[in-house]
Fold this protein.
Amino acid sequence: MVEGAARDAGEIAESLRKMAKMVNNLSARADCEPFREPVDWKALELYDYPKIIKKMMDLGTIKRKLDKEKYSDAAECADDVRLVWKNCMTYNADGSDFYRLGESYSKRFEERFQKLVDEFGEDVICGNIAAQAAPPSKKKPKTSPVPNASANKKHKSDKKSFDPKGIIPLDVRTRFAARLQRLSGMELGHVLSVIDEKCPEALEEPPEDQIRSDAQRMTKKHNYALDEFDGGSQIEIDIDAIPSHIFGELDVYVKEQVSGRGRGPW
């Protein structure tokens, strides 16, 4: 029974680790800025915001709670993530840019969260297995839901390299995503070619309702030849699915391409 309980606790911890990756991946998107930190309603003079939104939530707060192991299971974390989009759609008028943005992120999250449920099962996602397996008189073993805890302390001292089993730092991911927007079609084609060749699982096609009408339809393996890449093609890059050593190579390439191109965010 002890072995089974330890295995179940490990699965819950792994599902939480993947939730952390999902939150980081969403936060790194260029249009996710409104959701990264708490709404500064005082500075924005939105004095009715706290009257309408009873429980405020943002991805930065969720990430910090994950880092501190505040969630007992992935389902509890998912409730907070859903609250971010719900608050956005509650406060902003239906059909407004912010409402549509929140709606878009809600759909994107639910699709990815469902994959997590399919992978681990509802009992693990909701923490039911560990609760059933653990004797009532004993404490539930404390496990680390994210790779930056004690198990990976040896990687924390090496700031120049990425932990191949961990999460690429959010600031590094954000800069990388921002620089991608400044690449030419051929340069972006090269990045996609490398990813498609070395880690094709990092390429995601958006849902049908989010694909532009003029976007070129592609199926893996994709055609990313440098002279044939069409910027209208819509492919999402899941940075979390890129092994750190490949990400490092791509990051160096992207930095070299955008250097000297005038002023930009990064």
Summary: Residues 133-161, 210-233 have pLDDT under 50 and may be disordered. Residues 194 and 250 are 8 Å apart (CA to CA). DSSP finds twelve helices and two strands in the chain. The longest strand covers residues 203-204.
